[in-house]
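thread: overnight batch results

M.L. [08:02]
morning all. the overnight job finished for the chain we discussed friday. pasting input first so we're all looking at the same thing
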Amino acid sequence: MGIKAALPRYELYFYNTVVYLGLLWAASWIFDVSSSNANRKTFKSSVTPGWYYFGRRMDTADFEWVMWFSTFRDHILFALSGHVIFAKICSMLAPQHRSLMYLCYGTLAVLVTMGWTYTTLILSHCVLLYSISLVKLRWLCFLAGLTTLSTFKMEPFISWQAGFVAGDFELRSVLFYGGCGFTIMRCMSFALENCEKKEGNYSILELLKYNFYLPFFYFGPIMTFDKFYAQANKADLTRQEGAIWNISLQGLIHLGAILTVDILFHFLYILSIPTDMKLLKHMSDWAVVGLAYCNLVYDWVKAAVMFGVINTVSRLDHLDPPQPPKCITMLYVFSETHFDRGINDWLCKYVYNYLGGKHDTVWDETIATLCTFGITVLWLGPCQVVFIWAFFNCFGLNFELWTAKFVCMEPFASLEMAMSPAMSRMIRALFNISLSLSLSLSLSLLFSSLLFSSLLFSSLLFSSLLFSSLLFSSLLFSSLLFSSLLFSSLLFSSLLLSS
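M.L. [08:03]
and the structure it wrote out:
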C-alpha cells in the first residue's frame, strides 16, 4: 500500500533506544511494586515460593504455563520424543507409510492420556463430519461444523461431553477442550476440501491421519488439510543444506525463552498485579502502561513458545507448519493481528477471502468480516469481553481497508507521489498512532480483564503521560470520527447503487 521505504539506520536506532528506555523505566516501577507487595493477601494463591537460590517468590497465576513447563513437562517431552523417534524410524524404513505411523502413534497417545471414551467421542465427530462431507455442500459442512463446535461452548452439552473423559488430573479440561476444538476445525477443513475435490472423495483414513497427528492434536496450530495431505504424503524426504542446524537453533531459542520467562516471573509479578484493582489504582501511569505491555509481550511469548516447540517437532517430520505469531511490538495494524496463524490462515481461506472476493465492495467486505469474527467469537467462547474485542477488531479492519483505498484516490495519491519515500512513511506512521493505540487496547481487553483495560485507557488518554496522552487522544478521536463518517457514507452509497 503506497510508498514503502526503509528509514535511515540512525533514525531507527533512535526510535529503538527511546522504546527500550521507556520499557526499562516502566519495568523498574513494576519491580518496585512486585517487591513491596510479594506478601500481599490477594497474592497468596498466585505468588508462591520459587527457586530458592533467587530468594524470591514466583508469579504462578498462569496455570497453563505452570502445567506445561513444570508439572507436565516430563510427560509432554516423553510423548513428543516418542513421536520423533518412531517417525524417524518409519521415515528410514518405509517413508511412504509415515503418515499411517503418525495416526497409530497419535491415537495411542490420546488413548493412554484421555481414555477410550474420549477417543470414541473424537472418532464420532470425525465420522459425523466425514459423512456430511460426502454430500459436497459447503453450506451444510459449515452448518454441521459450527453446530458441533457450539456444543463445546454451551450447556448442557459441555457437561455431557466432558463426562466422557476419564481421570481428574489438572490438565484434563485443557486437553479436553483443546483436542475437541481443534478436531472440529480440522474436520471442517477436510470437509471443505472434499467439497472442492472434483472427482471422488478423500477417504476417512486420510481424515484420521490428519486429525490424530499428535504434535497438532491438542494445542494446534491448524494446518489446512490440503497442505497437510500434500506434505505428509510427499515421497521426497531430502532436506536443504543447514535445515537440521536451523531446527536445532530454533529449539535452543525456545528453551532460552522458557528459562527467561521463569526468571522474570521471580522479579515481575505481571500476571498477579492486574487481578488486584486496589493495588492498580495506587500505581503510577507508567507502571500501568508498562504492566499492560508486559502482559501482551508475555502472551505473545507464550504463543510463540508453544507453537514454536510444536513446529520444531513437525519440521523434523518434513512438514512446513504455520509460522509463530508476529512480535507484539511490531504490530501496528489490525490486518496483521493474529496470535494463531493457523486459525488465521483457516479463516482467511474458507471465510474471509471466500466471501470477500477481491474486497472491493462495502457489502461483501462487511459480510466477510462479520462472518469471520462471528466464527472467531464462537471459537474463543462467547462472552462480554470477546464480543467487545471482536467489535473493535471488525471495525478496525474495515477502517484500515477503506481508508487505504480512500488515500489512494486523487488528490492524495498525487500528493504522496510528490513526497520523498521517507516523508511518506513518516506521515503514514503519524496517522497510524491512533490505530496502534486502539490495537493495543483491544489486545489488552482480550488478554486481561475489562476493569484493567478501562484503567489502562484512562492512564493513556486522561492522565499525566506527558504530551503523548493529548496527542493519542486527539488522533484517536479524529480517526474514529473520520472512519465512522467514511464507513457510513460508503455503506449508504452502496445501498443506493444496489437499489
